Each structure stands twice: as C-alpha cells, then as structure tokens.
Amino acid sequence: MGKLLIIVGIVFIIVGLIVIFIPKLPLPGKLPGDVVIEKENFKLFLPITSSILISLLLSLIFYFINRYKN
Question: What is the pTM for the complete model shown?
Fold first, then answer.
C-alpha cells in the first residue's frame, strides 16, 4: 500500500508540473513531424510525432505501475 501511495503522489506532482508549465510546452499536434496537408476542401492531419510521444509516455507509466505492483 505504501508503494502505491508513493507512485500516486509522484503522478500528482508530475501532473501539477505539467499544468504549471503547459503554456511553454508544445501541444500535441503542433510538434515537428506532425503532418498537415490542406487543399481547397480537404484537410489531412497525421500526428506522427505526437503519437510516438504519447505512446512512449504511456508505455513508461504502465511499466512503472506494473513494476511496483508486485
């Protein structure tokens, strides 16, 4: 139970820091590597870099949750 409380506390600290510094961070969808193609009646948005970044972040979170779960 103690490990879980520590992990939850660390997650809250990280979320708090993100909320404080969010105006300075590039938002997903506006990162270099995100492709936007615009034509007259057509708009294609491919968030390649944002998808990779979110995937890495979620993988790390689930890795640490699974590691400390035991």
Answer: 0.55
